[in-house]
Design brief:
228 residues; Rossmann fold; DNA polymerase, domain 1; 2 domains; six-stranded parallel β-sheet; two-stranded antiparallel sheet
Length: 228
């Protein structure tokens, strides 16, 4: 368990990333990306590299990792969703121990919300399917119309919908597994916790400036609540 530079503050609002933080969603995402690349006629290469798509915005990843143009990336996203909504959406699982952490945080009076780059309707379907929607006040995500593509935009949207601004932001913590979660939190003036059981690594999260690091799902609630 790695703490903050200083003492743990008492956070009231906890924003959770979805992919790589609540659910181990790699299998469904990578299969959907492979399908999209095949439809585009682009060689996928080493299958292990497709894990880079877990977390960041899809169009951005298609352009960054495969050199696609903006229009090609947009088409890739549509192919991705074609497969994802039929086969990939439930091809994942909740990380072992995470529901227990959510339960402890809820019992302690924390207000939980999801802030994900996944389209909001898809995120809500997943939350209902896997039974963790009950822990969250609301689930916020990207728009199907191409709005809120960047993680910082989703976080800003979540804060606005929750009615949080000014000094309230000192009571909010963003929790995620990739640099986008940490950098998105910083852009909105929030502290952040990086988790190591997802798809990022310690160096990525530390370089992005995570204030806390949780190595396991149990540590997510353990760091925030302290010894029982």
């Amino acid at each position: 368990m790695t703490g903050k530079r200083g003492n743990m503050k008492a956070y009231t609002y906890l924003l959770f990333d979805l992919d790589g933080t609540i659910t181990e969603s790699g299998p469904g995402i990578t299969a959907s990306v492979a399908y999209a690349l095949e439809k585009l006629g682009v060689p996928a290469g080493d299958p292990a590299l497709l894990n880079r798509f877990v977390g960041p915005p899809l169009a951005e990843s298609f352009m960054k990792f495969y050199g696609l143009s903006q229009e090609e990336a947009k088409l890739g996203v549509s192919y991705y969703r074609e497969y994802f909504l039929e086969k990939g959406i439930f091809n994942n699982r909740v990380y072992p121990g995470l529901l227990e952490s959510l339960e402890k945080l809820s019992q302690a009076g924390k207000i939980l919300a999801v802030a994900t780059s996944k389209p909001e309707p898809h995120a809500k379907r997943i939350a209902e399917h896997f039974g963790f929607a009950r822990y969250f006040k609301e689930i916020y995500g990207a728009g199907l119309d191409g709005t809120r593509l960047q993680k910082w935009e989703v976080i800003r949207y979540a804060l606005k919908e929750l009615g949080l601004s000014g000094q309230d932001l000192e009571k909010v913590l963003m929790i995620g597994d990739r640099e986008h979660d940490i950098l998105g939190a910083k852009k909105n003036g929030l502290a952040s916790m990086g988790v190591l059981y997802g798809y990022g690594d310690l160096r990525e999260l530390q370089e992005a400036g995570a204030d806390y690091i949780a190595r396991t799902t149990e540590e997510v609630s353990g760091i925030l609540l302290g010894p029982c």
